């Protein structure tokens, strides 16, 4: 039987009786096959070993470029979140995205329904979304390519024309759903692939819109170490709250 995309969803922890979930979205510049839903197993293990986790820990996958381009990555994320909500009977979810996983997590929060063949699925996902944790993310492709022109090698694979197809977040921030109460921006000082410019850009957008959020700068290792770092695990244990 041919594997479906949802078969690559990983559920690392499922306490009995819970209807809440923290769902991870991996990075990899939309193109890297080495980044998968399993990226977050070590972080999940750290959380379980260190503290009490009374919510589901799960991770989803999405198809990569150049085989597909935007908005397919985002459509895959929403489809898999929708299926997970239905299958696990979830009433609340929070998203943790790393790198372009953070981009995708935020796009889920503010996405234009016109990008989806079935907007009812996006509506359901957004209605369950109560928090996002955005780690070493990309929030503006214009800013990114101004700082790193060479990064066009992956942007051009993910977007046919990013200037037309990527909605800069300053134009979509007014679509944040009212039930999204928790926003965390995190960045590691030792990230060698992204400076603080992206996180500072996103922070300035949220401040300008008077949207409450929490900002955390810390030494959580290099770009590919962040999502396996004990400091991130401890931060999540202290800040992932379902009410």
From TrEMBL:
Protein role: Catalyzes the hydrolysis of N-formyl-L-kynurenine to L-kynurenine, the second step in the kynurenine pathway of tryptophan degradation. Kynurenine may be further oxidized to nicotinic acid, NAD(H) and NADP(H). Required for elimination of toxic metabolites.
Domains as described in the record: The main chain amide nitrogen atoms of the second glycine and its adjacent residue in the HGGXW motif define the oxyanion hole, and stabilize the oxyanion that forms during the nucleophilic attack by the catalytic serine during substrate cleavage.
The EC number(s) this enzyme carries: 3.5.1.9
Biological classification of the source: Eukaryota, Fungi, Dikarya, Ascomycota, Saccharomycotina
Gene Ontology terms, MF aspect: arylformamidase activity
This protein's pathway: Amino-acid degradation; L-tryptophan degradation via kynurenine pathway; L-kynurenine from L-tryptophan: step 2/2
Subunit organization: Homodimer.
Protein name in the entry: Kynurenine formamidase
Family as reported in the entry's similarity comment: Belongs to the kynurenine formamidase family.
Motif (HGGXW): 26-30
Active-site residues (renumbered): 99, 191, 223
A Pfam family assignment: BD-FAE
GO biological process: 'de novo' NAD+ biosynthetic process from L-tryptophan; L-tryptophan catabolic process to kynurenine; positive regulation of cell growth
Keywords tagged on the record: Hydrolase, Tryptophan catabolism
Residue ranges of domain BD-FAE-like in the record: 17-147
InterPro entries reported in the protein's UniProt record: AB_hydrolase_fold, BD-FAE-like_dom, GDXG_lipolytic_enzyme, KFase_ver/fungi-typ
Annotated organism of origin: Torulaspora delbrueckii (Yeast)
Domain of life: Eukaryota
């Amino acid at each position: 039987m041919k594997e479906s995309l949802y078969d690559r969803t990983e559920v690392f922890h499922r306490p009995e009786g819970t209807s809440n979930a923290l769902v991870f979205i991996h990075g990899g510049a939309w193109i890297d096959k080495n980044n998968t839903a399993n990226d977050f197993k070590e972080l999940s293990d750290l959380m379980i070993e260190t503290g009490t986790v009374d919510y589901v820990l799960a991770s989803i996958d999405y198809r990569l470029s150049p085989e597909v381009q935007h908005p397919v990555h985002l459509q895959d994320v929403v489809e898999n979140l929708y299926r997970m909500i239905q299958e696990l009977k979830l009433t609340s979810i929070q998203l943790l995205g790393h790198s372009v996983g953070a981009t995708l997590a935020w796009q889920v929060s503010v996405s234009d329904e016109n990008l989806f063949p079935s907007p009812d699925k996006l509506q359901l996902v957004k209605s369950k979304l109560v928090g996002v944790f955005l780690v070493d993310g990309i929030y503006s492709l214009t800013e990114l390519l101004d700082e790193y022109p060479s990064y066009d090698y992956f942007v051009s694979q993910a977007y046919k024309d990013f200037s037309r197809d990527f909605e800069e977040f300053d134009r979509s921030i007014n679509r944040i759903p009212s039930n999204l109460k928790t926003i965390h921006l995190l960045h590691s000082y030792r990230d060698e692939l992204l400076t603080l410019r992206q996180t500072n850009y996103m922070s300035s957008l949220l401040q300008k819109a008077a949207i409450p959020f929490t900002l955390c700068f810390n030494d959580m290792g290099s770009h590919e170490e962040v999502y396996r770092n004990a400091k991130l695990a401890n931060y999540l244990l202290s800040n992932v709250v379902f009410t």
